[in-house]
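Provenance

Sequences were taken from public entries as deposited. Structures were produced by running a predictor on each sequence independently, with no templates supplied. The record for Dolichyl-diphosphooligosaccharide--protein glycosyltransferase subunit 1 from Sesamum indicum is shown for reference.
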Amino acid sequence: MAAIILSLLVLSLSLFTVISSSSLPGLQILQAERQIDLTSHIVRVYLTLKVENIEDDPASTVLLAFPPAQFDRLALVKAAVTVGKKRKKSYVPLEVNPTEQPSSPNGTKYYAISLLKPLLKGETTTLEILYILTHSLEPFPVEISQSDSQLVYYHDSAIILSPYHIKQQATLVKTPSNKVESFTQVEPTHRSGNELRYGPFEDEHPYSYFPIIIHFENNNPFAVVEELEREIEVSHWGSVQVTEHYKLAHAGAKHKGVFSRVEYQSRPAASGVSSFKHLLAELPPRVHSVYYRDDIGNISSSRLRTSSKKSELLIEPRYPLFGGWKATFVIGYGVPLQDFLFESAAGARYLNYSFGCPLADTVVDKLTIKVVLPEGSQNPSVEVPFAIEQSLETKYSYLDVIGRTVVVLEKKNVVPEHNVPFQVHYKFNPIFMLAEPLMLAAAFFLFFITCVAYLHIDLSLRK
Ligand SMILES: *[C@@H]1O[C@H](CO)[C@@H](O)[C@H](O)[C@H]1NC(C)=O
Ligand SMILES: *[C@@H]1O[C@H](CO)[C@@H](O)[C@H](O)[C@H]1NC(C)=O
Ligand SMILES: *[C@@H]1O[C@H](CO)[C@@H](O)[C@H](O)[C@H]1NC(C)=O
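Predicted structure for Dolichyl-diphosphooligosaccharide--protein glycosyltransferase subunit 1:
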């Protein structure tokens, strides 16, 4: 008993030190390098921080700060620590979670990176961070005609927002082309081709901020799936059937004026440069029965290429998509069960499938994944490497007696980096495999009996 109390005491004390060390930034950043990649419509920021502990308390977390507007558009924050030197360098992923701070100037929001082991006084560590922003390129002009190129604004700070003192830092911004209309000049700023360099800046105080705006050309497809519902149906009879419902939109500058197909087709290099007419979906290898249809019917202009590693489906909506235009369609396919369903402990199975959206370079505002388990499945549990919303439903299809358990997963703001495997574990009693054939047999038997009875009645009437 005393031992338990003592260990509880130790635990709460250690918790206390963790909390107190994270609320006092006893750290400084010796060097920070930031690279902002604006070449697609999804903004990817790579940050390298060399962090030093300058206080007596060991530090176990490092805070990342974001202005509130940017925080709301974050799709993903990943961090890794570099271990080893030069050639033997490798990266170990670290846990990153949103966190609150008692005092946050100007509504600053935070993520906390948990270090592998606490950093002692005078020690340094180098962190590699990636964060992804969606809906962060603002088209300007807001409306363009068919012959115009698309220009966008990007807002950020020339100085990295941080709760720590940064001794030395620089920011490199990459644009898709060297067509940059304008950019905020800060001393020193250097531009060459499609690269803009802000800094180096020395000895910036915590929470230093210098707003910048970059206005540049970006004609990449601004492909946004406003809603995607994927249904993954597991049948122990040999296949996994996937059905995906898309509500796709072009989120770039709105199209103005009339659309001329003649001009579009005769001058493809100058007309509708920011529009897109096809998208690439990456499907698993060994897909079969692939279809692609919309409200009108099957669209046959899709092309499927399969190899041993992956299948690629090139989908082409009925019309090219210009800014503000939308298209809804359905993609369906089957994959062999043995590629995705595995056995774990006795009687337990799990589905291992890819999360996210199979369309390349696409943002999904709202993703719903419904995993339909075979009838008689029990105790489903889900393993996904990031935060999602989860619930259960029941689905009935013909020949079902008690209905199928459906695991519903929901996530907002999904980017291609979310296309990682997730697992749904469940228990299954093989006796249920017999349920469907038995039902079929029973149905046939009933039909047969009815026929016999009918014939009997018919005959007896004639006599
Ligand atoms: C934060 O607030 C201070 C004063 O309250 C102001 O000087 C500074 O410009 C603000 N920073 C941002 C990024 O708005
Ligand atoms: C569309 O294609 C699928 C698969 O190829 C097929 O099963 C279905 O009958 C087709 N539908 C129409 C309306 O042609
Ligand atoms: C899930 O599948 C991926 C490959 O698609 C594989 O790398 C991973 O190890 C699998 N996970 C489990 C738990 O089986």
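The chain is about 15% helix and 50% strand.
The longest helix spans residues 435-462.
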